[in-house]
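Weekly modeling sync, notes
Attendees: S.R. (lead), two postdocs, one rotation student

Agenda item 3: backlog of single-chain predictions. S.R. asked that every request posted to the team notebook include the full sequence so nobody has to chase files. The rotation student volunteered to paste the first one in as an example of the format we agreed on. Action items at the bottom.

Example entry:
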Amino acid sequence: MANKIKTIGVLTSGGDAPGMNAAIRAVVRSAINRGMKVKGIMRGYAGLLQEEIVDMQSSSVSDIIHRGGTILYTARCMEFTTLEGQEKGAEICKKHGIDGMVVIGGDGSFRGAGKLSALGVNTIGIPGTIDLDIACTEYTIGFDTAVNTAMEAIDKVRDTSTSHERCSIIEVMGRHAGYIALWCGFANGAEDILLPERYDGDEQILINHIIENRKIGKKHHIIINAEGIGHSASMARRIEAATGIETRATILGHMQRGGIPTCKDRVYASIMGAKAVELLAEGKSNRVVAYKNGEYTDFDIQEALAMEKDIPEDQYDISKLLTR
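Predicted structure, as returned to the notebook:
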């Protein structure tokens, strides 16, 4: 191969997700196994521009697979959205001998990866986001842990909601994507599920549903509300005023990002990390590792970013059926 990759950089960017450490571990050990050097870039693209770059050995990633978050830390970087910042990042990579890069993150991180690739740094993306909102892949690292964390918390809220015969609005993460809300709606047996992709803002439907359920003896009413809809506290006040039923809002927030990654997140992250190194070893660039139709594959970054993803209509219809 004319341009054999000798040194790989790895960074995590955007929101953290459980399983990122497993992906980092796989990248480091797979690369070293292939005779490559590995450099860890701290704090994402912001750390790249500040040259926060450290050498990594196999021992650098010992005892991290079970840890949430990311040992490389993460940050958002507005400077890297500019051409000047991107060119500076590519020059820093060359200065440190980094001729291949693995970027673990979501859509915004992949846009940066595409820019690095265009500037001559072979770059591969790994989908790491709890929102499950990257269209080219059926799975994103962190989703399984996040949705299980939310599910367990909602079960606990349900217990106290039943004891006090309350209505509870529980807000889960998902600014533009309702997958956590949808899955929790199924798993927690919610009475209503509000998704950014589907909710039309008609609170009267919720109010009618609560009143109807109370008439047939239902002791609680759980509404799963996605972050993209938000305003859970004010919604709770309006529902209580309209129904006369005590209504409380609980916002789960960033607890969904943390915690011990599940087996699924560890395994998928490990395989995706190894696949990313494999692609770089083959001389590939500007690709995103994906899981599609039961197989690990890869897509062109621009092609992946152009894809659109929506809540599956059949799943949404079933969720509505089961909440009645």
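Discussion: group reviewed the output briefly. The chain has a mean pLDDT of 96.
Action items: rotation student to repeat for the remaining queue; S.R. to check formatting next week.
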